[in-house]
Amino acid sequence: MSGKLLDLPAGPLSLATGVTARLDRINDIPGEITRAGNAWGTSTSGITAGKSETAEAFAEVRVPILADTNFFKDLSLSAAGRATNVKATRALDGLSASDNGNFTYKVGANWAVNDWVRFRGSYGTSFRAPALFEQFLTDETSSAAQRSIDPCIRWAGNLALGRITQRTADNCAADGIPSTHPGTGVSANVTASGGVGILKSETSKALVVGTVFTPRFGFLPDTRINLSVDYFEISVSDEITQLGAGNILRGCYGSLDFANEPLCDLFTRGQTAAPFNVANVKDKFINIASQRNSGIDVAANIRQDLGNLGSISLTADMTWQLKDDLVLLPGSPGTSTNGEAGSPKWVGDFRINWQSPSSQTSLFYGINVIGATSNEKDFLDSNGGNPCITSSIYGTYCPKVTTPMTFYHNLSLTQDIGEKFDITIGMSNVFNTRPPRVSVIGSPISTLGPVVAASQYPFVGRRVFMNVSAKF
Length: 472
Fold this sequence. Notes:
Layout lengths: L1 E7 L2 E18 L3 H4 L8 E2 L2 E22 L2 E19 L5 E17 L4 E12 L3 H5 L3 E5 L1 H4 L5 H6 L5 H9 L13 E5 L9 E12 L9 E19 L3 H9 L13 E3 L8 E5 L3 E20 L5 E17 L7 E2 L9 E10 L5 E10 L2 E2 L1 H7 L6 E3 L3 E3 L4 E2 L2 E12 L3 E8 L18 E2 L2 E2 L10 E8 L2
Parallel strand pairs: 9-13
Antiparallel strand pairs: 1-2, 2-4, 3-8, 4-5, 5-6, 6-7, 7-10, 8-9, 10-11, 11-14, 12-13, 14-15, 15-16, 15-17, 17-18, 18-23, 19-22, 20-21, 23-24, 24-27, 25-26
């Protein structure tokens, strides 16, 4: 239900309220061969089945405080709240997990000083209950080759070759693993499973404050300018994830605090045929401790009417990331990835669009910019402060762990055909730009071949496309 409660001097007091109820089910049945453990590598998987019942009640209110007075073209406050109850039940054994009393809220303020300056801000909380698959996944077992997950195999030789860091070698030695451990024999058993009864909901807090400028100049009557600047700070607690067997072992032996590293509790060694081989790895869905991100968003738009020549608009969206911190597990040291590959400190998106007087033809050109990154600090920390590696095969070399600022250009032309059809032809990655190249051996950067494996960089080169749309 929504509507106006009453009229205040500055405007109507509005209220919206509601309730929802939802039932979700999952029933994932693997094939008989997999359930019987007869698949390649003796992989097995069980039936993942269960349900969750969600009930919610919410309300939102907007309160106008001042309007059309000196320095207060508009001043209003808003508030919203939502109470959520989630109960999940596993079909296998009836085990239930309830997430009661989750109350999330948001408060905001909007202050328009005049027609061209406005300030805004909000603070809110949110949460996400574990998904059904994350909770109810019945043990999925698989085999992982020792050499694909264990950084301690032949660690002395790999250190000499520059394939692992000094810190990893020291931790392998501290764990009593022989320097020539071959890692041959039976593969490790990896068990993935849900976390019903253990997983907590993800929660977050978000603060956003900013200002909007919309100046109008008498000597530029056909020009429209909009500029906004916002500061944001977001923190997430108890994020739900799976780490993967290789990441668990590499994180354990790459830890600065190896003796107390929680990741080391997620696997065991000691197979009968090979006492130092990894025996079992538990790769359950877990809650990682916390993640924190902050930065500044800037958005600008200028639109110019060109009369008989149509109109042109220039748009720019930029983000300066100030913080990107992660604490993986309780007791683990915090890490910062701000400015590293996959998490650049600055990104931008710039667009120019021309439209004909009839608005039937438009031309677009855009540039996506990914800022430079550097993983030098991580590399120096893990290599005893030495920027280079001495290898018996490669000699002394200094891995490239930085990326330059990268530009991707795109263009398109759109033409309306009658009132119901329009066609767009264009080209993406006009200059066939490749993702930045970094060193593969000795680099702390995740790579795909010799290029950075980060989502910002497309792995497809120049390409031409055509879209046709129809309205009925």
